[in-house]
Structure formats: C-alpha cells, structure tokens
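Quick one, tokens below. Sequence please?
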C-alpha cells in the first residue's frame, strides 16, 4: 500500500508532493495528461513557444520564491506598468516607485485625473500594509465596489483599471473580490511580472525535477476514489481499471474534477478566455517588454503582449510572437475570429499586421475558478478521513494559491 497518492500533477499536486518528500513521506503522483503542469502548459509550434493562454509568474509570490530557482528559469521581466491605447491616443501608466523617470509621462497620460494618480498611490499603500495573510481576512466587497469607494473616476476605470484587472481576473465587471485586488496589487508592487525562458511550463517542470525518480505517473486518469475500501486505507480506480491502494489520497485536480471525484465538494463556476497567438516579422511594441492594454472601450482584444520581447526562446530568431487575449468565450469559428481580430489589430498597430500569421486559437473554457471564499491556504483541507483536497479552487485562482494550497496540505498530512 502506498503512503500517499496525489491525484493531479498541476502546481498544487507537485508542490504537495515536494512538501511530502521533503518531510520523508513516500508519495506517488498520478495525472491524466501526458505532461506535468495542468493549466500551466506550453506548446511548441513551428519553433514558437505558445503558453496555453497568456499568464505570468509574479516574482513576489511567496510560494514561487520558496520553491523555484528563478535563475534556472532564466526569467525575463515585464517593465512595470503598461502602454494603454485610449480614444485620444496611446499613453503610459508606470509605477512611480520603480520608474520615477517616467512619472511625468504617467501624469500627462490621458488615462485618468491627477487625483486618480494619487489614488493609485493610496491603493498601493492599502495593498502593501500588514501581512499577506491578513489580506484574506479584510472586509469583503467586489473589486469594482472597492475602486468606486476609493473615488476612482470612470475614466480611470474604463481606460486602465478595467482592462488591466479584467485581464488578470478574466472578467471586466470586476466582481472578483477586493481581497484578490489587494493581493494582486501587492504582488505587482513587490516584484515583477515575468516569463521563464522557453515558456511557463518550465515552472511545473522545475518542480517535478525536484521529486524522486518515478514519482509522477502520467497518462493515469483517476475515475473513482473509494473511501475505506481496504483496511486502514483507500482505493483509487484508474480509467483502465487498475486499482491502487493508499493510506491517504490528495485530490489535487481542478475544482470541477475534484467535485466529480468527491461528492462533498461543490464544483466551482469558471472564467473563460480566448487567446490568439501570432507569428510576426517584428514586435509591434518596438521590442519593449511591456503589457499593452486596450483602453478604448471598443473591440474584442483586451490586451496584447509580445512574449519574445520579454524572455528568450519564445520565437525563432528574426521573428516575434504576439499574444492577444479576448476575455470570455468566442462563438465564431477560428477563421472568423482570426479575421475579425486582424482588422481590429490593424486599427491599433497599423499595416504591419497584414504580415502576421495566426499560429493558434486557444479557447480555454475552464481557466480560472470563481473561488468563494479566497484564503491564504493555511487551513488544513480534509473532506473525509484520509481524503485531502488542494488546488487553486481552495485558495485563490493563481499560481500562488495553487502552490500554497498544495504546500499546506503536504505539511498537514506529514504532521499526521
Ligand atoms: C489562461 C490562464 C491564465 C492564467 N493566468 C495566470 C497568471 O497570470 N498568474 C497566475 O498566478 N495564475 C494564472 N492562472 C491560474 C493558474 O494557472 C492556476 O491557478 C494554477 O495553475 C492551478 O493549478 P492547480 O494545480 O490548482 O490545478 P491544475 O493546473 O488544473 O492541475 C490539476 C491537474 O489534475 C489533473 N487531473 C484532472 N483530472 C484528473 C483525473 N481524473 N485523474 C488524474 N489527473 C487529473 C490535470 O491533468 C492537471 O494536471 C491562469 C490560468 C489560465 C488557464
């Protein structure tokens, strides 16, 4: 009988397994997919590295600081702030604490009032005061309510805050909680948004490389978890009929699968996103590693990035990878969507877009779970005797949430 079976080799499952092994507890990780990483995967297409949906590592995440070697990932950082297209031209929002030289440019940008720019400072202070854990205890309201209560003007909301936060929360109404707003703002203030050389999948791969050989079994889909099926243990059943017994089972799947395997759990609602990745002869942002936001209030594209401007190996030499994000699901066919976005991009970036070629249309229906309530993932998560649950749906919909939740379960289980 195995000591611990971990179902899911996403960031939560891998961090749980690393925590267990660091404390001398034997474990086996099973995953239905053919590679580790779960929602953090990168496909190679014609020499381009396409992350499955635009995502970034925030270097201030405590869990990634603890578990990852940033040097080995050869991180490339985004410049703090963003370039924002508005109806009256392009402007820049930067972080005056880290780019004081750009303060004047930011103050002049047609993105909000002077008072709004002072309110950004107040929001930064509110986000960075106290401990990170205490953020999850603050009085809860939606991010939109928080921003309104802080007096941000509609102009600032529409031109910058809605596209910026909308791209992170994958919803533009900003119904996500103010706790998540404070958390994200704090992480952006205390570190950088970054990409590893060669793609985001290098993150789970690095975690998996720290496990003992043969800890991860891939292509192993779990279809049932049976409680107390064997004396002193539990049984899991794989899609091919194989049965494995273990003293403890950690369910580190996405929230929907976890709810199918464990009826006591409620399935979360999901935020969706559609990402179109393009091969371009050169970067439309002039090689600057910066987030570009659509603050016009029109069009489908919420944000655009050029990963090959940020980190090595995202595009073959002499070309650029452009990644565009549309929040939510799109009903058009791939060809229709590509054609519509090409027209929109031409309006934003000019005639160069005619030389761009769509490499992939990525439709990610289950991207971020709607987490209620979010937590710092310190709580011990057992659903029944010997059954443990971790994952972003139990903490916060982020790399930090997934890893902290996995670590927390690993620590609690090892202490049993
Ligand atoms: C498009 C997109 C953008 C994002 N942007 C960011 C960002 O910028 N910053 C950030 O911090 N976070 C971001 N996130 C969120 C972050 O990626 C997730 O919160 C995190 O990866 C979740 O990890 P997890 O281990 O909890 O779940 P998952 O990654 O879903 O892992 C679950 C694992 O369980 C496996 N599994 C499922 N069912 C079974 C089964 N029956 N049997 C065996 N195995 C099974 C799956 O194959 C998977 O490997 C983004 C996510 C997406 C999709």
């Amino acid at each position: 009988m195995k000591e611990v079976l971990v179902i899911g080799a996403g960031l939560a499952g891998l961090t749980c397994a690393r925590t267990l092994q660091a404390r001398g507890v034997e474990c086996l990780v099973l995953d239905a997919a053919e590679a580790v990483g779960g929602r953090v995967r990168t496909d190679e297409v014609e020499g381009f590295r396409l992350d499955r949906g635009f995502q970034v590592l925030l270097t201030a995440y405590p869990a990634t600081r603890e578990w990852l070697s940033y040097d080995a990932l050869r991180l490339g950082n985004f410049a703090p702030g963003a370039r924002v297209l508005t109806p009256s031209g392009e402007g820049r929002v930067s972080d005056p604490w880290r780019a004081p030289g750009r303060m004047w440019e930011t103050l002049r940008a047609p993105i909000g009032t002077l008072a709004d720019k002072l309110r950004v400072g107040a929001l930064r202070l509110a986000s960075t005061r106290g401990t990170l854990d205490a953020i999850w205890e603050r009085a809860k309201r939606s991010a939109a309510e928080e921003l309104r209560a802080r007096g941000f003007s509609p102009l600032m909301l529409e031109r910058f805050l809605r596209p910026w936060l909308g791209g992170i929360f994958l919803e533009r109404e900003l119904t996500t909680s103010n706790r998540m707003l404070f958390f994200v703002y704090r992480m952006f203030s205390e570190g950088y948004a970054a990409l590893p050389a060669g793609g985001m999948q290098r993150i789970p791969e690095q975690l998996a490389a720290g496990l003992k050989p043969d800890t991860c079994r891939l292509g192993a889909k779990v279809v049932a978890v049976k409680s107390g099926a064997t004396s002193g243990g539990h049984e899991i059943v794989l899609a091919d009929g194989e049965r494995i017994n273990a003293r403890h089972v950690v369910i580190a799947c996405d929230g929907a699968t976890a709810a199918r395997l464990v009826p006591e759990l409620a399935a979360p609602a999901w935020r969706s996103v559609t990402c179109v990745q393009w091969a371009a002869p050169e970067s439309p942002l002039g090689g600057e590693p910066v987030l570009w936001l659509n603050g016009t209030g029109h069009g489908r594209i919420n944000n655009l990035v050029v990963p090959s401007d940020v980190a090595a190996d995202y595009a073959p030499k002499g070309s650029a990878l452009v990644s565009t994000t549309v929040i939510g699901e799109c009903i058009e066919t791939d060809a229709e969507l590509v054609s519509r976005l090409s027209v929109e991009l031409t309006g934003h970036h000019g005639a160069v877009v005619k030389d761009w070629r769509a490499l992939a249309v990525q439709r990610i229906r289950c991207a971020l779970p709607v987490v209620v309530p979010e937590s710092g993932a310190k709580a011990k998560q057992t659903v029944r005797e010997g059954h443990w649950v971790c994952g972003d749906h139990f903490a916060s919909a982020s790399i930090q949430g997934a890893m902290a939740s996995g670590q927390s379960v690993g620590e609690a289980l090892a202490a049993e």
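Residues 126 and 182 are 7 Å apart (CA to CA). Residues 7-13, 30-33, 38-40, 53, 55-56, 221-222, 252-254, 257, 273, 364, 367-368, 391-392, 397-402 surround flavin-adenine dinucleotide (CB under 6 Å).
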